[in-house]
Amino acid sequence: MPPDGLSRLKWFTLGMAVLIVLALCPQFLPRFFTYLLALILITGLMATSLNVALGFGGMYQFHHAVFYGVGAYSVSLMLIKTNLPIALCFFTAPFASAVLALVMGFICVRLSKLYFGMLQLSLGSLVWVVVYRWYSFTGGDDGLHGVPIPSLISSVSGSFYFTLIVSVVSLGLMYVILNSPFGQILQAIRDNPERSETIGVHVRAHQLVTQVIAGFFAGVAGVLFVTVEGSAFPDLMSWTLSLEFLIMCLLGGWFTFLGPMLGAAIIVSLRTMVGVYTEYWTTVLAIILMLLIFFLPEGVIGYLEGFFKRPDVSTEEDR
Amino acid sequence: MDFSTTITFNGLIQQFIVGLSRTTILFIVSSGLSLVLGVLRIPNVAHGSLYMLGAFLCYSVATLFGNSPIGFWFAILLAPIGVAIISLATERGLFCHLYDREHLMLLLFTFALMLIFHDAVKLIWGSEYRSLTPPVIFQGSLPILGMPFPKYNLFLLSIGPIVAVGLWFLTQRTKIGKIARAAAVDRDMVGAVGINVSWVFASVFVIGCFLAGLGGALVAPTQNITQGMDHTIIMEAFLIVIIGGLGNVWGALLGALIFGLTDSMGIMILPQFSIVFPYAAVVIVLIFRPKGLLRATW
Amino acid sequence: MRRIVSYMMFVCLLASMIGSSTLTFAASDIKVGIIDTYSGPPSSYGLDVLDGFKLALNKINANGGVLGKKITFVTRDDKFKVDLGLTEAKELIMRENVNLLLGTINSAVSLAVSDLAKKEKIPFIVTYGKSSNITGSKGHKFVFSMNENTEMIGKAAAIGLAKRPFVKYWIAGDDYEYGHAIADAVWNHLKKIKPDVKLVGQSWWKVGEPDFTPYITSILSAKPDAVIVATGGAGCIPFLKAAKNTGFNRKVAIYMHTATELSTLRPLGLDAPQGVIGTANYYFYYPETPENKVFVEEFKKAYSRYPSFGSLIGWYTANFIAKAYEKAGKVDPEKFADALSGMTIDSPIGKLTVRQFDNQLMLPMFMGVTKKVPGYDFLIATDIVTIPAEEIMPSIEDIKKARSQD
Amino acid sequence: MLSVKDVQKSFDRFLAVKNANLEVERGEIVAVIGPNGAGKSTLFGLIAGRLAPDKGRIIFKGKDIGGLASYLICRRGLSMSFQIVNVFNRLTVFENVQVSVLSRLRRAFDLITPSKRVAVEETREILKSVGLSNVENRASGSLSHGERKVLEIAIALGANPELLILDEPTAGMAPDETASTIKLLEYLNSDLGLTILFCEHDIELVFSFANRVMVMRQGVSIVQGTPQEVKDNEQVREAYLGGS
Asked: Do B119 and A123 lie within an 8 Å CB cutoff?
């Protein structure tokens, strides 16, 4: 929800306060939690980019992780195999994801819902196969490790600050895009593609552009992942990971902007912290999911929003 | 590396038959998925887990009977029934409250089920590999066109048509099949006519899951029974259902044929890239027939 | 308002996480962090390693530990996923403050964690990952391998196979690094030793392939003399099963690296095909030394099953760790790494040495043939030939070359 | 302005529209009537570009638009509202109409400007003209049926059409809602100069305010003329008015 005029200042102050707290984190948090925060930011950025297509665009984006992986691989390969300036490598890698999103989107947007999702899943799996098999270039299933990243941004706190800055900028950009006429029309398409078409919207073109935008920011997240972890590997584009991102969106609230970020925070910390105590953390996750579906079908933030602002919001399914 | 492969006609035929026996399992599993998807509109990700559960149950029952032939037949019969009972419990306890939710939510829900089944299998059966011996009459191989062909695969080949005919009978000739088909097209209308849709849905769900369990039980003697069986099969089953046409049982057969045969032929013709074939087949089908090969029910 | 609430939740979440972290800060023990796969198909290997490790550790701690300290350990399940493994490694290093890391069966996880260990200067001992890159091109001071690697397998197989009369070979395997690495290593060395061998074809299947029948029939139609099967872990079992069902083993000679290992043969029971040639680093019935008998007895008593190679890895890894700390004289990662490098200990399979140059454990290899033997309800290896470690270690020149390229 | 000539459309060998002819002049209100399944909705779908005709021509402002994508037809000044309520459920009433205006202003690919600042006045205007100003911040999914039907029309108006096509605009409405909707349509026609093409079940209603009426039966257009002409037509009496 865009802040309304009166309280804009309030929101701005709150946002800045959160930012400052986050920026101070490495000073007082143990190293591991700084790392974990960076991981949450990256995963959250990734989930938010997925949600641009999923929650705001209504596209069943079943294999979003491909763009994540391609971003990570592009930057790793450029850093390892070429002598290009490092800044250039970081900057161009997300465009590789965007180009892939354009190509895959071009084929997929002709279909809708489950068919779209499945076609994307198959195409994504083809990309995965190529990465998985092309040993001489991508390192095959072993992946690429020890990517040479300048120590300024590869140390725990350095990578945290880099991640924080890049993800805040990216989130800001996505927020602007979603609240622009483009984003408004995108949401209309989500609600009702046929109707959108009859008011003069070129639905396919709109969806294609959305794919490119979502793919681009997924690529950014991929680049950040390499900065923090120093590795790229085929797991980054596996369909199970895609499903995990999807769950984050649904968990946090897929019709809200910050929902995916919250979902990512919940899942990443659950995975890390519950994983310490039990191998069966997936069961804990499953139970949380079931409770969520029964009691909070709009996700956590969606529920809070409905609770505070819009008791009249309709959950009627749009076919 | 230097090598040359000669592809003989006999080899091709052989490969074709082998592909068919693989198709059988794929068909049984994906037809169940398709049924659930078509009538209940549930993209059941946990279908693969039920398949895995079928295999594990089959193993346990057979071991209980000391791996005797009778035990094997019992296992083949009882394992899917066990799976059906579990699915009935989940349907009545959980799913039946969720039918009006969005597809994505149902997908998520079945994913949660998949996680639970996965951990449950790990808890109950542990992490060791299991292996089941087929009865003596199915051990070894028969020569077909001068090439040894496993007897068990022949048995599988004969099961496929039986299941297909059974499904055809069920959907076309029985009352419940007719109601289910009508419900797939317009569920409100069926409810309005005064039929208890809820129970129709439950029985369709159970039948679909029974098929998953049957697939798992049948496949148990040919491979090692282990966690992770669910991952491979569910992906393939979904792709098959999609290229066949959502909810269309015959589509599932066609899709399974395409999938099984491109796979086994790919192994023969371009063995180094066989991993690519099924995905490529799906992409090609969807580019030319975006809604699948046969008519989808939704 | 609603956003305030969500931020509050976020903060609470963080606070709870930090709260839980403060519990673990008692550091008088030597703490080993183990990352391995404890769920999914590869978990039986990880559990075998863990059991062997525990067995040895209990004995060490019962005898007073090392340097007056007990050795304790914590485990994390990486679920065969690299991202999870990496996060867990960082958690173990940064939050649990472990003194060294152990793991894992997944080569990609091993390589990723190895890179982290290099940065953090924490010794990392690879227990089951078999990529030759771990101690080869990607090796460094802090990484050790306690298992054989693909290069060693290849050399051993080539030496063993060259003595047999096969000429026309087919290569088949798992379509991932491990499969291809083994296949390349076997073939390159075999070609060197016996130049007249011919490769008539190859097939590659995806990892986790459930049914091998189509591959076997397609191989049979090319009529090779022998097939080199480069499949690892879970793939071995269904392959051997399909081989028996199709009568593959009676038509063609099969070589498969882990075919004779207990982990492969025990689950198959009497369903395994006879006459399959396999290499392994350990059998509980071979070598028939007193040390081995003692080890088998102890292991059986503790876990009521036979030890597999994984159990042995766990066992000697624990002993290596204890001895290395003793030699280092204090708990210090640099000193520990220096001490472990080049160390020799006694084991059920004779003296074992960690090669000083690349920290790769020098393991002998045993080549045997599967056979039904009365007294066991599974097949065992017979006609065992020992290939000494010195003959199969990767050449130092090659490693130097590989490392300089990176 | 719009002329439909010998148009035919079939689904799976079922001929939904066999032979339809229709003329609409600028400034008119034209109604299409016919029994259920006569092919009215299909015909409107064909005109609005949601379906492609198998045969025949659809000429709008001198150009053949048969089979053209519906977003292109809309951009030529032809806008449609649906029989089944078809609004954007998760958007507010204001946003529903704004989307339509944004699309007409070709701002669809404007990624930067906050939409809060675009087309606000124009959207308010439209909402005011249809009488939905008081609910503009409610989620459209929560409106009453009648309100949603009006919102349908408002969305169609956002595209600033010259020809407005309405598929049963008053279906399911309460009598007073119907009356105000009719008033709205008359206002649109007389004050804003919109040409209106609509179809309806309620024959009295049709005859009371349409300039011309076209009668369809079993996919064939029987006759088109003034209400009086249609009432007097033998075929129509026999087939439709007398028969029912």
From this structure: no
E strand segments, chain B: 141-144, 147-150
3-state DSSP call for residue D79? strand
Structural domains present in chain C = 2-148+291-363 (3.40.50.2300), 151-280+364-392 (3.40.50.2300)
D33: three-class secondary structure by DSSP: strand
The answer to whether the Cβ–Cβ distance between C111 and A273 falls below 8 Å is no
Q: B151, C245: Cβ pair inside 8 Å? A: yes
Q: Please tell me if residue B246 touches chain A, with a CB cutoff of 8 Å.
A: yes
Alpha-carbon Rg for chain B in angstroms: 20
Pick the CATH number of A5-318 from 2.60.120, 1.10.3470, 2.30.30, 3.30.70: 1.10.3470
CA distance B295 to chain C (A): 30
pTM: 0.88
pLDDT tens, position by position, A103-146:
999 999 988 888 898 889 889 988 988 888 777 788 888 889 98
Q: Which residues of C touch B13 (CB under 8 A)?
A: none
Please list the alpha-helical segments (H only) found in chain A: 8-28, 31-54, 65-81, 86-108, 113-133, 135-138, 151-154, 156-178, 181-191, 193-198, 203-229, 239-252, 259-277, 281-295, 299-308
Instruction: Encode pLDDT of B88-126 as tens digits.
Output: 999 998 888 887 787 788 888 998 999 999 889 988 988
CA geometry: angle B184, B189, B191, nearest 5 deg: 90
Q: Do A111 and B290 touch (CB under 8 A)?
A: yes
D176: nearest Cα among D188, D168, D184: D184
ipTM of the complex model: 0.86
pLDDT at position B4 is 44
Domain boundaries defined on chain B: 24-128+135-227
Q: Which domains does chain D have, with CATH numbers?
A: 2-77+161-239 (3.40.50.300)
**Residue ranges for chain B with pLDDT beneath 70:** 1-8, 187-188, 191-192, 194, 271-273, 296-298
Closest to C367 in 3D by CA, of C156, C183, C164: C156
Interval A155-169: pLDDT, tens: 888 999 999 999 999
Inter-chain touch C187–B131, beta carbons under 8 Å: no
Q: H helices within A3-112, ranges in order? A: 8-28, 31-54, 65-81, 86-108
Let me know if D72 is exposed, middle or buried by CB neighbors in 10 A (0-12, 13-18, 19+): middle
| Nearest beta carbon to residue C205 from set B219, B222, B274 | B274
Q: Which two tokens stand for residue B98?
A: 């969720």
Q: Where along chain A do its domains lie? A: 5-318
User: Between chains, do B224 and C267 touch, taking CB under 8 Å as contact?
Assistant: yes
A181/D108 touch (CB, cutoff 8 Å), yes or no: yes
How many inter-chain contacts (B to C, CB under 8 Å) are there? 148
Residue B112 to residue A119, Cβ atoms within 8 A: no
Nearest-CB residue to D71 (from A183, A191, A201): A201
Report yes or no: A293 at the B interface, CB cutoff 8 Å.
yes
Contacts of A111 in chain B (CB under 8 A): 286, 290
CA distances from A199 to A178, A286, D51, D105 (A): 20, 42, 15, 11
Please check whether residue A290 touches B, CB under 8 A.
yes
Using a CB–CB cutoff of 8 Å, tell me whether D41 touches chain A: no
In sign, the C-alpha dihedral spanning B64, B69, B72, B78 is: negative
A279 in reach of chain D (CB within 8 A):
no
Q: What is the pLDDT of residue C365?
A: 93
Q: Please give, rounded to a whole number of angstroms, the shortest distance from the CA of B41 to a CA of chain C.
A: 29
Q: Judge whether D197 and D41 are in contact, CB under 8 Å.
A: no
User: CB of A185 within 8 A of CB of D102?
Assistant: yes
Q: Of D79, D114, D116, which is closest to A199 when you measure between CB atoms?
A: D79
Q: Cα separation of D178 and D196, whole Å?
A: 16
Test C115 with A145 for CB contact under 8 angstroms.
yes
